[in-house]
Amino acid sequence: MAARLDEMDRKILAALQEDASLSLDEIARRVSSSKTPVWNRIRRMKESGVILRTTALLDAEALGLEACFFVLVRTSEHDAGWQGKFLQVLQSRPEVLEAHRLAGDIDYILKVRVKNARAYDTFYQALISEVRIYNVTALLSMEEIKSTTILPLALAAD
Questions:
Q1: What fold, for 67-140?
Q2: pLDDT tens for residues 32-66?
Q3: Which residues are in the HTH asnC-type domain (predicted)?
């Protein structure tokens, strides 16, 4: 169930999504409020799970992680035991930035960030040694055209 947010909450969230290191004073100024109500709203949104955590965004390429692969996984096994093992393996692999279970012909898609193709092969070999997979297709991203963590708050309005 979606959280009930008003326009002030959305403005606060927009400011935090743009730069979570903003001071309370600056957020309050941007949303035309004072510090205490802004702090109370942020606290409430953290407690209700709207704000999950505050983190820093890093430049993968600047850190030497130049290859981004989208990995399409098909499995012939759909029982709870296999799914549990697969999820456990994914959680243990730092290369896996995102994992989604899909509807359609492909069962899962993974976003994997590594140094290069050799590092991807090391990841792939480890993955298939830990869990049985029917088919894996890896797609190398040639260019990242758009990447954002900013959610479209206007589309989530009540």
A1: Alpha-Beta Plaits (3.30.70)
A2: 999 999 999 999 999 999 999 999 999 999 999 99
A3: 5-66
